[in-house]
Each structure stands twice: as structure tokens, then as C-alpha cells.
Write a structure and sequence with these properties.
This protein has 219 residues and is α/β, with parallel strands linked by helices. Helices cover 46% and strands 15% of the residues. The chain is globular. It binds adenosine monophosphate (AMP).
């Protein structure tokens, strides 16, 4: 099963994708996480990508498409994948169609998580992530079970993303409206776009998505 999770910054794509990866055994592919790994390498490309990300703009399509195409060709993606943060532009959506066609793969579902702008700003402003494994938390809505310790990997180091600062958040919203929303009509016309209410609690959103994806198929 191949799925795209779409939604504005802060809509909970990463949180939901991690849960779906566990439940359905399909690989969570987050281009944002891949780029953060590139920036951590300190290479020339990494520095360039970092300055783009910190400002809330998009990394150029050619770099992004090449990176994603290589990733979905890896063996661990054969059982299916959930795309989180890709595609974000019309050329990326077209490139994805071509990549899938070339591999004789289809897109089963495109799920849009809808959340009000005011709630998104509130979520992003309180968000922090584990410095080691990237697990996402929120100062008010989703704290680690044990104060100061990551639920997933036990690390005690957390970071606030630079692109969650208000200036970058404003840019990311604008990018989403102008560059990402235009990919929706094509999925709607193909009858694979489903919308879930992202204002609901984390568990409830997971349930809505699971209703769409259906039962876990036996191994
Ligand atoms: P995310 O973690 O999905 O919020 O992505 C963080 C940042 O990574 C974005 O604001 C972009 O700068 C970059 N990025 C992630 N995915 C893409 C993409 N599909 N196309 C271009 N830039 C991306």
C-alpha cells in the first residue's frame, strides 16, 4: 500500500505517519527528515539546504525528486510507503506519478489532514523534537511520558526547529498555500483524495485514517 499524507505545517503528518508505519508495516518516508540528515552532514549541499529550510522555503524540485526517487527504490520500501512532506509542488507530484508508473506501482490513498490556521500556529510554537530520533512533542499537548526523556529512544536532548520560529512559520504557510495546495485538484479528480479532521485529538485522527486505509492485511 502506497499512501501520501498531506496537510499544512503542524497538521500532524509526521506524528500520524509514525503510527501508521508501525501499524501497517509500511515505510514512513519524510523528506523533511531526510533533508535534516543532509544538513547534519555539514557538506556544501547540507549548508545550502539548511539555509533554505531555516527560512521556510522549499528545497529545489530537482534535488528533492532525485533524493525521493532513490529512497523509494530501496528494498525496505517494497512493502509500501507513507509519504510525509512529499510531494509539495506540482512538478513533484508529476515526478512521483512517473516514478510510480516506472516501477509499476500505484497510489492507494492521498489523505489530507485539515487544521485551522490558528491551531497550526499554536501547535508549531510549542513543538519540540528529540535531538536523537526526531520524535515530535508539544509543550502543552504532547509531553514525553517521563519529563525530559524521549518516549521512543530515551534521549534527554531536545531541540526546537529553527523553522518553527514565527517568521519561518509565516513563510511555510504561504509556501503551502501557493505551491502545495495546487496539487490537490488532480488527486481529487482521480478519486483518491480523502480528507480527515485534523482538529481532533491525535488518537482520533489516527482512527479516521485507519478507517480509510482499512484493516491490516495478513502477512
Ligand atoms: P517538514 O519537516 O516536512 O516540515 O520539512 C521541513 C523543510 O524541509 C521544508 O520547509 C522544506 O524546506 C524542506 N522540504 C521538506 N520536504 C520538501 C519537499 N518535498 N520539497 C521541497 N522542500 C522540502
Amino acid at each position: 500500500m502506497n499512501v501520501i499524507l498531506l496537510g499544512p505545517p503542524g497538521s500532524g503528518k509526521g506524528t500520524q505517519a509514525k503510527r501508521l508505519e508501525e501499524r501497517y508495516g509500511i515505510r514512513h518516508l519524510a523528506t523533511g527528515d531526510m533533508f535534516r540528515a543532509v544538513t547534519a552532514s555539514g557538506s556544501e549541499l547540507g549548508l545550502r539546504v539548511k539555509s533554505i529550510m531555516d527560512s521556510g522555503q522549499l528545497v529545489p524540485d530537482d534535488i528533492t525528486i532525485e533524493m525521493l526517487a532513490a529512497r523509494i527504490g530501496e528494498p525496505d520500501c517494497r512493502g509500501g510507503f507513507i509519504l510525509d512532506g512529499f510531494p509539495r509542488t506540482v512538478p513533484q507530484a508529476e515526478a512521483l506519478d512517473a516514478m510510480l508508473a516506472q516501477r509499476h506501482l500505484g497510489l492507494n490513498h492521498v489523505i489530507l489532514i485539515e487544521v485551522d490556521d490558528a491551531a497550526l500556529i499554536d501547535r508549531l510554537s510549542g513543538r519540540f523534537t528529540c535531538a536523537r530520533c526526531g520524535a515530535s512533542y508539544h509543550e502543552r499537548y504532547n509531553r514525553p511520558r517521563f519529563e525530559g526523556v524521549c518516549d521512543v529512544c530515551g534521549s534527554r536532548e531536545f531541540i526546537h526547529r529553527l523553522d518553527d520560529r514565527p517568521e519561518a512559520v509565516a513563510a511555510r504557510f504561504q509556501v503551502y498555500r501557493r505551491q502545495t495546495e495546487p496539487i490537490l485538484p488532480s488527486y481529487r479528480e482521480r478519486g483518491i483524495l480523502r480528507v480527515v479532521d485534523g482538529m481532533a485529538g491525535i488518537d482520533e485522527v489516527t482512527q479516521q485514517i485507519e478507517m480509510i486505509l482499512g484493516p491490516v492485511s495478513p502477512a
